[in-house]
MOSC domain-containing protein
Amino acid sequence: MQLTRVRIHPVKSFAGFDVPSATVLPWGLADDRRWAVVDPEGVSVTAREENALLGLVATPLADDALRLGEEHDAAGSLLVAAPREAEPVAVGHSRQGTALPAGDAADAWISARIGRPLRLVWQPDPTARTVKPDYGGRPGDSLTLADASPLLLASEASLRLLNELAASDAVERGDAVPVPLVMERFRPNLVIDGETPFAEEAWTRVRIGDVEFRVEGCCDRCVMTTIDPETLVRGKEPIRTLARHRRREGKTWFGVRLVPVLDASAGDFVAVGDALHVLG
């Protein structure tokens, strides 16, 4: 097995993109989900409520800065520096407490595109936000503004089977066969090839390249996966198919959560083409 894609999402709920390699930090991949969107009261706002967030683009720059918008669209893009000197504001991300506001220009940029008052905030210290014990967190485990774990891994073999099940179910119902789902719906950081669908759910430890990870359980999936990342239109898949074939404990499941186990003597980065070895 090998790593076929590495993806980062600089702003939580914005569009993600592929990179050839990424540095692995204790709290996740470098440049992944250190920024997020909140409302004026500090309540977290994601694509679950505002589908259009998935259509926005942010590019990480040096020193934790961001470019909001496409690089080639100079008139519509905005450079945002990491607001290290800003006064913290309360935010509704669990176990985060406060974050630093990006400022009026960034807030106006996002608000204009979503159509309601919103704020952009930055997490200055990802070591301060712990992984919940319910999600396999151990003392010292931390994460960015991601929902549950430092990284998410998904398998192409699992997605192929899911698409086959969705097509088979559609035929059974007398519906048109749906367009195959793309991996972007599930917002993984790491994508592997593999041969056996959902084999990843039985793993406890893996090594990708030189980096070891603990596998801390499956990822339960929410309504955000039903938003087409291209059209931003919400539908019934994949939740309809997952609910029929992948439902346990009242939830639907796809992908597994990872926590890095870093060795200072190894190269703490992953790259497309790295081999994946199951250690347990």
